[in-house]
Amino acid sequence: MTIADIKKSTETKMGQSIEALKNNLSRIRTGRANPALLDAIHVEYYGSMVPLSQVANVSLLDSRTISVQPWEKNMAAKVEKAIRESDLGLNPASLGDLIRVPLPPMSEERRKEMTKLARTEGENSKIAIRNLRRDANEGVKKLVKDKEASEDDQKRSEAEVQKLTDKFIAEVDTLVAAKEQDILAV
After folding, report:
1. Domain of residue 60, CATH code
2. Is the C or the N end of the chain the one with fewer CB within 10 Å?
3. Full residue range of the structural domain in which residue 55 is found
4. Could you give the percent of the chain with pLDDT greater than 90?
5. Is residue 186 pLDDT above 70, yes or no?
6. 128 near 18, Cβ under 8 Å?
7. How does DSSP assign 120-152, residue by residue?
8. pLDDT tens-place string over residues 15-62
């Protein structure tokens, strides 16, 4: 493994951390309805637990209402129960084969909880990125120790990895700030 391989691998993994953060932030509730909010809900389907999106069509009716339309009529009750029992605090209403999930307006206290949750997700991503930086630097040190790279290469590599780390941490800060704005918008 060369220094270039280590840097490339580190950059790829940092990018994956950013994608994971985007995914986690999309599940945090804002004032508006978002179909991704129901992604974490699993429903029992013929004996196995499957994501809600695999048994129903999830879409938006308006800015405060998510519609869920199960593909099989007998799944409506199970889907409604799964949404009600999730920790999202939602109360679905069934209209024949369509399930409406109105999102109640969030209280100021709930908004603050959601911003804390967003910050926590951001901090976890920063920790993951810093761990990747550490791993990359240790990999380069091992190459120097094994006489496969010089100490100058090590210094140069550490500086480049630090620039990468700074870039990705700035991106995390940007994503978290945008999510906080979204949550606090009334």
Report:
1. 3.30.1360.40
2. C
3. 35-102
4. 29
5. no
6. no
7. HHHHHHHHHHHHHHHHHHHHHHHHHHTTSS-HH
8. 999 999 988 888 777 767 778 778 878 888 888 888 888 888 988 888
The tokens describing 184, both together, are 């606090």
Hunting for tokens 């700035």 — which residue is that? 170
Q: Residue 136 — φ and ψ, nearest 5°? A: -65, -45
Within 10 Å of residue 184's Cβ, how many Cβ atoms? 15
Q: Are residues 121 and 134 in the same domain?
A: yes
Which of 87, 102, 117 represents a domain boundary (last residue)?
102
Tell whether 44 and 95 lie within a shared domain: yes
CB atoms within 10 A of CB 50: 12
Rounded CA-CA distance 12/29 in Å is 28
- Phi, psi for 29 (deg, rounded to 5): -75, 135
